[in-house]
Amino acid sequence: MRTTLFIFLFGVLAWTASAQVPREHMRLYTDKECYLAGEELWIKVCVTDSLYRDYPLSKVAYIEISDAKQIYSQAKVALENGTGWARIKLNPSMHSGTFRLMGYTRYMRNYPSSSFPKKYIAVLNAGQVSDEDAVDVVPDSLLESQETPTYQLQTDKPLYKNRDKVTLQLPQLPASLRELSLAVVRKDYTLPPYQAVNEADEHVVSPGNKRYIAECEGHIAAGRLVTGVPDSVFTRLSCVGKDIRIFDGRLQPDGTYFFFTTGITDMQDVVLTSIPFQQSDCRPELVSPFMEALPKQLPPLRLACGEEALLERSQGVQIYPLLPVDTLQEKGGLLKQLHSLVPTASYNLDEYVRFNTVREALIEFVVGVGVSKNAIRTLQSDINRFSRQKTLVLLDGIPIENHEAALNYNAHMLHYIHRYGGQYSFGGKIYDGIVSMITHKGTLPEMMLDINSQLLAYEFPQDRPSFRLPVYETPAQKLSRVPDFRHTLYWNPTLTPSERTFTFYTSDLNGDYEVTLRGITEQGEPVEMKGFFRVEGGK
Is the pLDDT of residue 452 over 90? Predict the structure, then answer.
């Protein structure tokens, strides 16, 4: 009887646990459907549960753009309460044709890839012809007859000049609408809707016996050893900069290391270090977090577009990288302090007589730091003596295990020396105090890393980049000789139903422009509203 009761209770618990296993559902919104190779694609990612409720579990989404042969563009997107957006630079070498855009979170990889959201986008390469091109160009009239959009959105005028201010007044929207995004794009192409993704055209990737934990706090960077035995090596990932950002690797059953990062976004210089228990060569490397799954085949591209309009867009794509940097654009990657550590003492070396080496600077004027046998020690105030355990020495946030290399470093490079008292634990190691040296550049200049470390650039998730919105309020701004070839005039992924009025400026490109508002209802039904206006020459 007891055995039967136990089996029954175990079955109930197992069923309850399986019923409560969360499932993530994702939707993708792009600023348009047709791009040129080299253009920027703006994408919004929304993650909810199966009932379209807010689902703040995963903090990172992954995007892949590919054809049937290779991946062309990838992006990591930082999520906040299930929502985030990113700017993806399309590869200039992409051929003309149809490409698949696919999104997923790390946690979603516990299910077959057939459940991931996917959409087709059109890409045209106006600068080169490839054997892989698969484009069927047809007359505008043929495709326009298949689509008769109803224009529900109206701007303050139907006709504008170049660099004119446009005011868009939205109608009263139901409060139940969600995930709203607004895009204004020149309508110089006509593209019929693609058919739903056919599973027969997909390489379905199954997780098998592997399980993927959710990125609940931030991006999980993965590394592995090219040489060396994982069981005898400790690894560390550190961000180069003026703050302390150190992440110890956690060894996984498959021999990889996980670095559980948090609060770091955009492109960063990092140092990946392996510390063997015994002196040996154990070079580490980072592992791609992307699935990199390809479709079996893609439908041919069938669209209508004007040759002149295509050439104008192509000129804009080529000129854009040469334009002055927009001060409104985020410069990206400003690190925030991970550990709320307050230095016991700080020294601005610009206020002192310069010495040639760090050894001399520490000995001459840094109080509470001692040098003994090529080792740096900090003063422990509670026992009033220098520590016997190792001190953590940092240069631009990077741990320097070889204290002799730190002591011989060029002191002319330094701006600050910070001393932290007390004990600190990193990766199971206990350190008595921290000596943090900050250079003027903050980029680890002239420091030779050991053979078990490597400096590399790593792209963390994009954290809501700003869309470029030029302003032409004054005559001088309108007459500026800096060209404006924006094809997407406006992109706003953060609308709420209560917002009604939006303003933006036209560019130097003439033509017809389409305003598109997208979102979903509380039941998950898609909502789309459109508007239209025209731009003709003159300022």
Answer: no
In a domain, 242, yes or no: no
Residue labelled with tokens 């006709």: 159
Q: Is residue 352 part of a domain?
A: yes
How far is 264 from 266, CA to CA, in rounded Å? Answer: 7
Polymer length in residues for the chain: 539
- Do 30 and 70 share a structural domain? yes
In 55-96, DSSP assigns E strands to: 60-66, 71-78, 83-89
CATH of the domain at 403: 2.170.130.10
For residues 482 and 131, which has the higher predicted lDDT (pLDDT)? 482
Torsion sign across C-alpha atoms 139, 94, 463, 111: positive
Question: Do 182 and 321 share a structural domain?
Answer: yes
Would you say residue 5 has pLDDT above 50? no
Contact 112, 65 (CB under 8 A): no
Place of tokens 């400003």: 334
- pLDDT tens sequence across 75-120: 999 999 999 999 999 999 999 999 999 999 999 999 999 899 999 9
Which are the contacts of 476, defined by CB distance < 8 A and separation ≥ 6? none
Q: How far apart are CA 34 and CA 32, in angstroms?
A: 6
pLDDT higher for 203 or 269?
269
Q: Tell me the residue type at 339.
A: H
Sheet-wide strand order for 301-305: 135-137, 301-305, 189-190
The angle subtended at Cα 280 by Cα 276 and Cα 281, nearest 5°, is 100
56 and 141 in one domain? yes
Does residue 122 sit in the same domain as residue 165? yes
Count the helix, strand and coil residues of the chain and give each as a percent rounded to the nearest 5: 15, 40, 45
In this structure, the answer to whether residues 400 and 480 fall within a common structural domain is no
Whether 455 is covered by a domain: the verdict is no
Confidence class for position 148, pLDDT limits 50, 70, 90? low
Q: Which of 179, 282, 266 is nearest to 223 (CA)?
A: 282
- The neighbour count for residue 318, using CB atoms within 10 Å, is 15
Q: Identify whether 263 is part of a domain.
A: no
Residue where one domain finishes, among candidates 448, 482, 503: 448
Measure the CA–CA gap between 415 and 247, rounded to whole angstroms. 25
What's the predicted TM-score (pTM) here? Answer: 0.87
Domain that holds residue 384: 345-448
Contact (Cβ atoms closer than 8 angstroms) between residue 407 and residue 281: no
Q: Are residues 181 and 310 in the same domain?
A: yes
CA nearest to 36, candidates 485, 356, 380: 485
Looking at the fold, whether 444 and 505 belong to one and the same domain comes out as no
Q: Specify the number of domains making up the chain.
A: 2
Q: Tell me which residue has tokens 């089996």.
A: 7
Domain identity same for 34 and 155: yes
CATH number reported for the structural domain that contains residue 326 in this entry = 2.60.40.10
Phi, then psi, of 99 in degrees rounded to 5:
-130, 155
**pLDDT tens, position by position, 466-516:** 998 999 999 999 999 889 999 999 999 999 999 999 999 999 999 999 999
pLDDT tens profile 358-402: 999 999 889 989 898 789 998 877 667 787 788 999 999 999 988
